[in-house]
Design goal:
heterodimer; A: 220 residues; alpha/beta; globular; B: 373 residues; alpha+beta; seven-stranded antiparallel beta sheet; 9 helices
Amino acid sequence: MKRLVLLVEGEGDVAAAPSLVGVLLTRLPEDLQGQLFLDNAPMKVGGVHQITGRRQNDLHRHLGNANKRSKLGATLLVLDGDADRVEGQPFCAVESARIIAQRTAACGAGTTFSFAVVFLRQEYESLLIAAANQLPGLKAEVTLPPHPEESPRDAKGWLHQHLGDGYNSTEHQLELTRAVSDWTPARSIRSFRRLEHALAELASAVATDQHILSPISSLP
Amino acid sequence: MIKQIRIRNFRSLHDVTVDLNPLTVLIGLSGTGKTNFVRAVRFLRDSLNSRSINFEPLGGISRVLHVEHQNESLRFDLVFFIDQSGTEYEYSLERHPTGQIEESFKVSGKILFQHEKNEWVVAPAVVPLPTPSGIMLGAIPGLQESTFAYVRLRGGIGCYDFSGDVLEGAGQNRESPERGLADRGDNYLQVAERILSDLSKARNWKRIAVGMRAVNRAVANLTLNVPTADRLDVGHQFNGHVLSMDVRSESEGFRRFLAHVLALYQNPSKQTLFFEHPESGLHPGALESLANEFKTCPLDGRGQIILTTHSPQLLDYFPAESLRVVDVKKMYTSIGPVSPEQMDSLREQLLNPGELLTVDPARLAGQLAEVPG
């Protein structure tokens, strides 16, 4: 069994992402179960702009730091995919993930441990909205958005508006994540399926000792 | 320099041993026990000063002892040096639930005195032999080392947590100037006068003035009204002239910075200086200068420095070896070095010290979950 270290965006994610990823790890195919052990100290790396452009070396440092933890097998970077532009170009989650993953080869990712990037569209809270009918405190008259992946654009704001106690990620993100017992509705969101797939890829890589970068780059 | 301190049963510090360096920086979330650590040392110092253990200033005994150990002793054990000779002093003070005091004092491993239940366990080699009662450190005629240690612990420790109105007062208080800068800095004029009175260290005064330019580039000098020493003026360069303004009218950041620097350059120097959250109210651009003052203080022999901070920017200026992590679990504080894997990352510059407050929160050894199997 190898260690899986999460790199996440904000304080709420530090608390909540392990809960979600922990659940998803238990739902991997049977042959991939027991390959990864979830590290108890996610690293808070900030948004995509904190690890790209002039700060792209910061991600290499963070991965090097993660690699100091014993028995590292995989690292998973989970960021919100709500940026408009990255490095001067219109933001494309798939392309940005590929570029970021490819760059990390320089610090040992893909050879000594595996690394995957997942952008959640629009943000982590979009997954909660997809499963909103399980959230405690949801106001009775609320109509769930039909396409939480694309709208609402401000998922945190949507939760704040439609939950009885409002929403603050630091205070509520973990509590709401734990309240969701069935993530099936979130599977309608492509980035949620991407998260599931990335975990399966990482577990498979650790199982076969063939480390990967995910998504695989199409760049030369 | 205090090399090691063990505190038992003071608020959340049930049994905590801390190894201290010439420069030590305590980091941890709010409510973990950093302030309790500083208060414990202040409590010990004040107890020695008054020769009695008085819980009232801290709200009574029930507010001082650990909430789950109200019927146990309060105890302090210190290992410290007084000068550069390397002679190691060890002092223990224990207050039993009955109110009785137990005390022991060693120099270079040899017990010079020890008493409990108002009787000598090891009597000091002096004649006439006093009857032990209360705190005896420094109260045994003929026992020179005991006096040295008493002066060291009573007057040689400053615990500073400057408020936003520091240096706004009259600058004089009744505290003896020999005791140095008061914890709240309210005798700053006396302290400034004593810095200036030692002409052999006149360059220190100039360094203070130059250092203040980190906060305000227009600062030309600092002047103290003599002989009355009733105001400290800050000279500002203004159209080729120097405009003097009373320090009391300066900004909070300026006054806070100056208060720290006065503490660092006070005469005579403290041997150990505690500063809580020195970054408060300061412009980030002044933090490097303040950090440099903290780092040079022990190198110049002006005292050991122990800081608490929540500032990633300030933390970035300090070496990994100086950091101590403060954590709390179920109201029990632990303090120790940064975990080995984070220390490796710091040494290899994969992690900046400030990132121990942001990206990868500082951990004690053993706090990272181990991979099963």
